[in-house]
Amino acid sequence: MSAMKNALAVTGCLLLLVVACSPDGDDGGLKGRACVMDGDTLMIGGTRRHTKCIEGQIVDLWGITAFGLDQLCPHPSGRMVRCGLYAAAQLQEKVKTGEVRCEKKESKFGGVIAAQCFLGDEDIGQYMVAGGFARADASATERYTGHEAQAKAQRRGLWETGAK
User: Fold this and answer.
1) How far apart are CA 32 and CA 18, in angstroms?
2) Is 96 helix (H, G, I), strand (E, B) or coil?
3) Is 154 helix (H, G, I), strand (E, B) or coil?
4) Given Cys at both, which of 43, 51, 68, 99 links 56, Cβ 3.0 to 4.6 Å?
5) Residue 129 · residue 147 · CB < 8 Å
6) Which domain CATH number covers 84?
7) What does DSSP assign to residue 23?
8) pTM of the model
9) What letter would DSSP give residue 68?
10) Number of C-alpha atoms within 13 angstroms, CB side, residue 20?
11) Residues 34-76 pLDDT 10s
């Protein structure tokens, strides 16, 4: 009987050790502070040095495409605005104070991942598209196409400028 108790104790300890040593979030999840690289790219767990994000995991926001950093859009006032910088600034404003949680959807070239990311329970991709700061990428998912249509119809965000 003593041998049986010892075997159960050893088995219990081994199970506890396996559970304790298993990596958290090995389901493709990623959490941390976000550094904004552009309107649809974050670096999770990195830091900003001067104007660059360094030492973290690069994450493309899955299902959206932001305006390019250098893209110019006509403003109703008649002047051109840098809509990509505006989109990046909106994303920075959104994520600046909280921890971002990302669920990996796919791996991309160079160690970059595409992921659906959240601030609390709010989907950051949906926020960007619904606010008119990014386009839905229908080749990845149809999830955000309705939000883009509403943003365009209501001339929200960069759709006010006549962005294309």
Assistant:
1) 25
2) coil
3) coil
4) 43
5) yes
6) 2.40.50.90
7) P
8) 0.79
9) P
10) 6
11) 999 999 999 998 777 777 888 899 999 999 999 888 888 888 7
